[in-house]
Amino acid sequence: MRLAVGAFKTRRIAHLDMDAFFASVELLRYPELRGHPVVVGGRHDWHPVVTTDGTRRFARLREYVGRGVVTTSTYEARALGVFSGMGMMKAAVLAPEAYLLPANFEAYRHYSNLFKKAVANIAPEIEDRGIDEIYFDLSLLPDDTMALAYQIKKAVREATGLSCSIGITPNKLLSKIASELHKPDGITVLSLEDVPTRIWPLSVSKVNGIGPKATLKLEGLGIRTIGELAKADAGLLQQHFGATYAIWLRDVAQGMDDRPVVTQATRKSVSRETTFERDLHPLADRAELSGVFTELCQRVAADLEHKGLAGRTIGVKVRFEDFRTVTRDFSLITPTADSRMIQRAARMCLKRIELQQRLRLLGVRAGGLTRVEKRVEGESNPQQQMELLEIKGDQST
DNA sequence: TCTGGGGTCCTAGGACCC
DNA sequence: TCTGGGGTCCTAGGACCC
Q: How many independent structural domains does chain A possess?
């Protein structure tokens, strides 16, 4: 029997990652900060002040007080040890003189659209992986790999004024790792034969899917690099990680991954949450909590409405002062995008949580999403659903 | 000086139905 | 009456990612 030609054809999958994306967008706007450590993040919505001589005065990291984390930082700030996710107060100790800017997501979304469109003109099969990165398939394009990489970087720069890094390999797993190897402004092309020399020396934590917990656990077994993972005893891995994850770990260590590039995905949930400036007491701060709660429900409703969606499963999330997090959810009979109905369902969920400690965070979520193009006659209407909720709500108190 | 906000996916037990 | 197995839905928690 003959196999179809192409059955074993090696794919050319690219991963493109914008370099220090948010910070780089800010530098387009404030070019005088180029070359300096700059941190984007925090909670205050302040902006640079234009002084009388026309120059701009920027806030410094040391002036920051309160909660919040670093959203991103320039390479100069990273050199001082400041990375995204780090607490702002800790970052201020490491880089007190760094310039501080508030995050401006509208601008980032704008530049995100620009760079994605630029790539789509060359390689239309794109998988969206968030605001600053994408996968795309080059397998069907006739051009040479390096030529394509240069062409795409040039198109991205012309569209946005920004640089990016690209990894091109036979699969998403390797491309994701590769795009990081020559950052910023890099191109890295790898084949499976390069895995022992280029991939095995790296930490297991470089693998997309091996997070902090798994890294720590592997370290406990004496496994630090991907090469060590490749040589690890299968029985040992299975014993500590379970059969499914152990098999995945073995494949990953060999550079094996056959996941397709997913060009269209449907949203599964919509949520809004907020961390309070100070921890709120469930009774003493009841009024404030109640106001925030209503607002979160309204924002979820507005998001659903805006996207033409309705959610059937409404849930809440509470984080206590000790960082313990609990969730509760409840499935309605019919999907809804109505803020009052969302709030009723969410309130029922909230009632099932024992509120003894102060709250650090409150969130509201809608899952089980469906499109709401048209209203079908005879469907249970909001009023009926409300009545059902009242009955349920009474039972729970 | 801890630890944001918006997501996805997986697991696991229990309910319920066939 | 007892014993099953499979499938699906619901809920809660947790790991992970950008």
A: 4
